[in-house]
Write a structure and sequence with these properties.
327 residues, alpha+beta, eight-stranded antiparallel beta barrel, 7 helices, 38% strand
């Protein structure tokens, strides 16, 4: 898989992308990700022992979840629907010794755990992929689990020669797309959010008021009639949506967080109050969201011909999907 990643990045990276990391330590300072421990130098026997002694981490029955919103370097040859149709009914089993990819192939594996820099071979590429994963609702994190054939001559063909696990998802690269698999029953059939577009943080008022920002859901969230949405990057297992209800000059923005498709938080973060005269607004609340999921809400009321801030509040979404006030 890493060989494919390298090829697809040729059009995105400079020729000197693989510079000496020991002399460019500024590249290691990423605010959202720490790249630390690396166990990739373990011997095969140590890895086999680790597998047998960690049955609680044994992962079975991975099924298709989604593909990336866009191809990595825009060199894809197939459509998204064609890629989805190839994998939507596929099941991958990872047992104590073997990986089984549907009826396609089976191999005895060894497992290694690498830092993103170690796996992607340099800091720039790791940072690039951190951004790509975030755009698709996944966090690259500190460790990448890699499954490869214990016997290279018996390895499966590309893209099954190497499987990686990132953010509780199994990932391969196929036709320049990232293909994600989740543990359990086929979420692509039951999860109407699986192909929703991710909008990266921060969210500003100018972005919210821009054209072609809001997307349309294929399902209903929290019994809200509207289906216009912004989906923010997930917080671990928590999905974060802002649902918009537009009605001429009136609007309402509702923050909804979901875990296991159950509502954790539902809060209005923006709205407009109609004025005394038709098609006028007397008061409105607008919001912005920082990279750390801190929301700022400003309520403005009309004073003469202008709007003045009446009150402001700040809160943050926690890892469990609940919110807490920020002072």
């Amino acid at each position: 898989m890493k060989r494919i990643l390298g090829i697809t990045l040729l059009s995105l990276l400079f020729a000197n992308c693989k510079e000496n990391l020991n002399t460019d330590k500024n590249l290691f300072d990423y605010p959202s990700t720490e790249y630390t421990k690396d166990s990739s130098n373990k011997t095969v026997e140590e890895n086999k022992e680790e597998i047998s002694n960690n049955n609680d981490k044994n992962i079975n029955a991975w099924t298709f979840y989604k593909i990336s919103e866009n191809s990595i370097s825009e060199t894809q040859k197939e459509t998204k629907d064609e890629v989805i149709n190839k994998f939507k009914n596929l099941k991958i089993d990872i047992g104590e010794k073997n990986v089984t990819v549907g009826n396609i192939c089976t191999f005895e594996f060894y497992k290694s755990v690498k830092t993103p820099i170690r796996y992607y071979e340099n800091a720039k590429t790791a940072k690039l992929y951190e951004s790509i994963f975030l755009k698709n609702g996944f966090k690259l994190g500190n460790e990448i689990t890699v499954y490869q054939s214990l016997y290279p001559e018996k390895a499966c063909e590309i893209p099954w020669d190497e499987l990686i696990i990132i953010d509780n998802s199994l990932v391969i690269v196929y036709d320049d797309y990232l293909v994600f698999f989740k543990k359990g029953s086929s979420p692509n059939k039951n999860d109407c959010f699986s192909n929703t577009k991710i909008t990266n943080l921060p969210i500003t008022t100018s972005l919210i008021n821009g054209n072609n920002v809001w997307n349309e859901l294929d399902c209903n969230i929290s019994d809200l009639k509207t289906r216009d949405y912004l989906r923010l990057p997930d917080i671990k297992d928590v999905k974060v949506f802002i649902i918009a209800d537009f009605n001429f000059d009136d609007f309402r923005y509702t923050l909804v967080t979901l875990k296991n498709d159950k509502i954790i938080t539902k809060k209005d973060v923006g709205f407009a109050k109609e004025g005394d005269k038709p098609n006028t607004v007397s008061e409105f609340t607008e919001f912005e969201v920082e990279k750390d999921y801190v929301f700022t809400l400003n309520t403005k009321t009309k004073k003469g011909d202008n709007f003045k801030i009446l009150k402001s509040e700040m809160f943050k979404i926690k890892d469990d999907g609940l919110i807490e006030v920020v002072k």
